[in-house]
User: Fold these one by one.
Assistant:
Number 1:
Amino acid sequence: MVDWNLVRTKIDLKFWFGIAISLFFMVLLFRKIDFNSLWSALVRVDYRYILLAVVCTFVSYFLRAIRWHYLLIPEKRIPLSSLYPATIIGYMANNLLPARLGEFVRAFVLAQQEGLQTPTVFASLVIDRLFDGFTVMLILLFTLFTLRLPQGMSEAETVLRTGGVVTFILYAGVVVFLFVLKHQTIRTLAWTGVLLKPFPQQLSNRIIPLLGSFIGGIRISSNGGHLAAILVSSIAVWLFCVIPVDMVLQGFGIHLPITASMFILVLLVFAVMVPASPGFIGTYHYACFRGLSAFGIPESTAVSIALVLHGTAFFPVIIAGFYYLWQSKMSFKGLRSAGSRVGN
């Protein structure tokens, strides 16, 4: 029996902790800003570029739906007319709900619409995130070895490169482990048990069944065309995440190499991993501000860019998410409750 009061308490604690983190970074961001300069920078923006950024953001969501289609092919051929709304609703929920419940909401919505088991759909999203992470690591490595940061940041550049390589190796190790676990499950679980022997038996008794259950729920098509579609769509997804950053910069009259936009995007990806309020308020803005400052962009302009960039990713998907929610005859309250149940 699940203690729902305990679940709610945990979510509330995460929510208020996230709020505190967001407030800290927002204070850090605005404490030295000249608000007149900030307003002037916002007024001068060419909003045609901002519109293009919004369009590209929705293209990236559509590409995510395409990749999800191929990830779920072993279970069922699901049309994009179901996958795309579920994707938008999930990202809307991520912007509004605590504890990143949007991933569970996304799985729940599609499972309800297509008559699938929610854990099965969620397992596909785990693989979805693995492809995201691997692609981001490739972008990080490419950026760090091609982008030349301004003078005076050579030490930071070296640290970033080293960290990027180490992170990529660790991530590749996780992917290889999961691949071997899927194809040699019994043998891999046995070796995992051996590696866990120095630790308390209770840890082994918990981890091994969990790994077995997790990998049993994951199925990936072995069709070469399907795998190629997953890889190509993964690259395309992140290409259309980089373009909005570049579009917003151009909207402010700032012309930097595309690798600078890639660098800022990677910082934003790491920023949204930090516990924060729904919508990643504060952490997102501060990471963007610091990334832009590295290229000598004035503080007020950098903050303005951070606000607009966040707005292009935040408000349009919320509006679209509520539209698809209404179209699906679901309520936001019911969605939050379902996400909490699935996530716990």
Number 2:
Amino acid sequence: MKVIEGGISSVTSIRASGIYAGIKNQKKDLALIVADPVSLANPPIAAGVFTKNRVCAAPVWVCREHLQDPSVQSIVVNSGNANACTGDEGMSNARQMTELTANALSIPSDQVLVCSTGVIGQQLPMDKIEAGIAEAATQLSTTGGRDTAEAIMTTDTIPKEIAVEVEISGQPVRIGGTAKGSGMIAPNMATMLGFITTDVVITPDLLQTCLSEANELSFNRITVDSDTSTNDTVLLLATASAEHPKIESTDDPAYQTFSRGLIYVCTELAKMIARDGEGATKLVEVLILNAQTKSDALKTGRAVAESPLVKTAIFANDANWGRFMMAIGKSGAIFDPYRVGVYISDYQIVKDGMDAGYSEEIASQQLCAEEVKIRIDLQAGPASATFWTCDYSYDYIRINADYRT
């Protein structure tokens, strides 16, 4: 596997665009992604995973509906308005976005998926959306991935994209991705949108299985503020343009090769989201080792990664190990507190659940890094889990207090 340039545009038969439609103030805010068919036998297909919040935005419902048939050729996305909690009008507007896109591309509307992100509770400015979709369709390009990455941003400070190439049956297969998200980010997905393209040739069921597995190990392992959004969506669009035999079984070594590439792309995008958390100054990796069960490992990782007291201590470069022990203890995992070890990178600050006799100066230096690794050994069993989060700075309050003003 090798990392390549181009994001979603690195994949053959993908065109994309991102334009300013006037939804936001002078920033790109509407994007299109299109998979051009290359074979009648293997048309483009898609898979998706969605928010677990009971308050779902209208586009989430429409995507779920349209994915009942995995034949998909396009995704339309707007930022600046979430189209959530908008009732029947919001549902009508989401459907209209798919119809406008379908008309512009001369494809069926049920082969268009739709996503929105931004402020909750406001109706979409459909006059601007209509004009924007028409313009975006004229701007589609095989190098338009970066424009898409910029158009889906809200409080993000940087566009997020990655691409890799793997080899299947001697043929190159590409996987490209872009994502947005920096706040309202929690395990079980978040205020995040992720769009992944690939030219792999695979059955629809296996494409969905592969995305669900990758999502569980990546986007479901990040947290910024423990809030699960109304809109979070990850869509995987496969053009089926690679020249290898179709993958039809999880036992096929080609499936494992593709899966590893997809997990890598999803994980790198997830880490970019955590690193760009609202007001964040550090990416924090929380590794739980030797938990009694996988469930306990996940509980512990989530509790530590979500703790405001842990996150503020990390921001202050303060190795206040009592905060780690507090978070571990409230997780609900089964373990002996007097066997727990806590490390910052490889530097131990807790041994057998007590002060390890560490140096505050050395521990503080370890926390000064832009990427901080917290390793927690429960010594209770064989299970492990990794989460990614960020620190809480003063700017987190400022950004969210000023979000609508």
Number 3:
Amino acid sequence: MRFTKDPEVISEIYDRHAKPLYSFLLKRCGHKETAEDLVAHTFMKLVESHSKLEWKGAPIGAWLYRVAVNALADHWRSAKVRKESTTLDDDDDFFDPPSKDDPSWNTEMTIERERLMGVMKHLSVRDQEVLTLRFYGGYRTEDVATELGISNNHAAVLIYRALGRMRKNLIESKA
């Protein structure tokens, strides 16, 4: 792979993945500076391990997202320890997610996941495949296009339309 032989490729990877990765992390942690730090950590990990990485056909974005998710999990673990000694009430820009052990949160997420999966079963096989790749697989639109052997624009349209049908089914299921 060109990446392991030419470290300059890292800047191309950064230009392509930094903004989507930042958005992904910001949605999950709710704090701008934390998301920025986690993106920096992810790319530092890439720089540190670029010569050791072995590619098995997965997109580089998948590796970056896995590192980012692990870094976010580490952040929450360390934030839990720090929370005991400081108050976060002064920071309006911070979202403190419930603990994985919180029964009400787990119940709510289980119910919501079952509801989404139930609605998804009523979509076409193509819609299910597109949404699974995009949201459960964490693929970007370009990766969905590559996986399905279609153009980027076609993949974007399929995702948009599948989401529209999913939204419509969700609204109808509430009625």
Number 4:
Amino acid sequence: MTAAPARRRHEVRIIGGAWKRSKLPVADAEGLRPTPDRVRETLFNWLGPDLTGWRCLDAFAGSGALGFEAASRRADAVVLVERDRRLAHALVEIKTRLRAEQVRVDNADALAWMARCPVDSFELVFLDPPFGTPLAEPALAAAARIVVPDGYVYLEAPQPLAAEVGLAHGLAIHRQSRAGSVHFHLLQRRAPAT
């Protein structure tokens, strides 16, 4: 009888801030594809190394790489929303290990959670919905409502976002790039005209 091959343990590392080089385990879960280090490094170069005073939401949190990266860079509050109960439990374990008091984990559907969230609740919303699902645009619409004026929404998608799609929700593309099959966008909510 041949033994089943051992599963390779997957992990990503926090790339900056207080927990730089800390490892985050990545569970084997269908559709879970953590944001690559190179993409996170580019994103946080765009945002800057210090997020003091920012409230951040990591919707579709998965491994929590984006949210924990923000917390490592001194974000005041970070909410990780993850629908899969097993993944949410793993995020709580990471939060405990890192002593990340500013991080909260909610086991919920991201779109429903954002629909209940008060307007203007976050300076930064991360959206990395499962690839191959039609969730990018509904998630973008939900995030546009809860991000503050001049705040940011980050979106990963399998194709580039058309500028008019963001503008339809009051979001202008601030920066965008591509790494392999991942198109990533940093959008900014337009402040109301005065």
